[in-house]
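Re: the 378-residue chain
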Amino acid sequence: MFTFEKGGKYQMVREKYEFSAETKVGSGEKLFDYVAECVEDFCNKNNIKSHENVLLPMGFTFSFPMIQEGLNKGILVKWTKGFNATNVVGKDVVQLLIEAFNRRKLHKTLAPVAVLNDTTGTLMSCAWEEPDTRIGLIVGTGCNACYTERIENVKNTDAPIDQSKPFMIINCESGNFGADGVLDDILTEFDKTLDSASSHKREQIYEKLIAGRYLGEIMRLVIVKLINKKLLFNGEGSEKILKPWQFKTEFITSIQNDPEGTYENIKEIMSKIDIKTYKEQDLIDVRYISELIVTRSASLISAGVATLLNKIDISPVTVGVDGTVYRQIPQYKNIMQNKIRCLVKPHINFKLKLSEDGSGRGAAFVAAVLETQQKKTT
């Protein structure tokens, strides 16, 4: 919840809610009912109510591919990142949210006025403080980017275009890059194994090389192969390390946070995955594997950012970034800065800015702007 004050200041109250595995793949109605339940819980905890029957405007961040037919209408194209709820693809997600709100009487308090992709929310959030922000980037559970395109260059859309505006935000859905096979030459055997076992085969290839949902599993597959070749842990594995998705990406973050030459975090992870026998060289090797996976992820996302920077060709320019991978892996930002610098035109001065309050702040800004505009016209 954002409360805006004079002078560009605001107050924020937020709370994090988790989706269970069952909710992600159950019915669409149950998924949106759970969202409404979380919103209701938040409203009750913070005593959020409408005042004199005036509904509070709400921005809705929806981090999946959709066809945006209006500020408050988005048609889901497909699920990604492990979600596969039924009876949602092809439908307006805002309407589904409103229906869930109605079932809990939340329509008497809140009015969803805008739906945004999380990249757009990140761009808008950073632009509040850095007006030269032109790119929004997510490197978290999934990955995606958006950027501002000159309006005269926007051709491939059925949406109405306001020619009086200089720019339009384009959601790239870059996570799906490679679905046509153009990345096949750089895929390793581990990438191919992960993709073949995923719920969305031959989709989101770029994302599967980069994002937090997949990095831990890629590392697990590498470790298992080295165990089978007796190159790690004297060839002795465990039930946990052999089970898919049991090596979490947060383990990689923890490994990377070990000071050079120390292995306390790695030892703790060995305990979590029931690896009992290891030498110091095993710990060195595990750290090295994690470094390779992180470096590849950061390098590939940097190539995408550099492509957008070269396309818009504006300097100076800010790239707004959010996501747990970028936030929590210590050297990720430095790798990105170095790789992007190698790939962008020499005259482009860019800055990577962490979106401190997440894409939700951008959605709140859009909702507030729409509310202000509506008041001016009534």
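The chain has a mean pLDDT of 91.
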